[in-house]
Amino acid sequence: xxxxTDRLYIIIMIGKTDQGGISVILPKQTVSLNIHKPILxxxxxxxxxxxxxxINQSMNREKGIPEFTLHYVVKGKGYFEFxxxxxxxxxxxxxxxxxxxxxxxxxxxxxxxxxxWVHFIGRQGGNFVKLLGIDKKNPSIxxxxxxxxxxxxxxxxxxxxxxxxxxxxxxxxxxxxxxLGRILHLKFKSENRPKSSSDKIQNSIDFMKENLHRSYRLxxxxxxxxxxxxxxxxxxKEITSMSPIDFFIHLKIMHAxxxxxMSHYTIQEVAELIGYEDPFYFSRIFxxxxxxxxxxxxxxKS
Length: 302
Description:
By secondary structure, this protein is of the alpha+beta class. 44% of the residues lie in helices and 20% in strands. It contains eleven helices and eleven strands.
């Protein structure tokens, strides 16, 4: 199991739980000083922990808390009372409570649960929850056992076990994104999506490569793939880690780089060859991705 730190400067915030296990709670000052910084404003894990065989464990959040609360049972069972529902949580069950909702949970006296939890805030947190299909009416899903999921949870812990510098906070945020992404992957996998889905996404990518000189909306790409827009977007992001439109744009910019390096086309001609009628708009997109303008990029390669 994870080794506890002996560093005095964080031992107050990282240590054993009352029921046996480990927990991390970021100091309020650390959260308030960093909540609006890049990366952390999108996803910021501020509490996490693990309890094994948590006998007589209970928690009453009568007034709720201002963060998402994710709770994953790996053994035994327990109960959540939330939104006028009594929800049994057993092995493989994952529940996410939205911010500012009251809830009460407790471990089963005969089969006490072993559980992981993560509390997170940030603009992207709610997007992950929506992709999982979780809301206040249906807050729980079942996720199959997966060692990689627990490994990504330990990555979050490992970053905080080294202190609360901005670098470590960003590392924990990145690990938390991987953790939530892994949950999303496992959910899609457990839903027995058709084996042809990955082929449809690959065919869509091939279609994009053959039509870099054109512009398409999400709905048009989804229709070409024979999928609904929502399913297409979710499957595409699961396989490529990017949205379809972002992926298409990156393909266009990759081709633009080649044209700038290996041809004498003007900037406007390059823009037209990858489907942009406005060369100034093309230049803005190019600089956003590459960090330099097309003119500067060509000059650096000459």
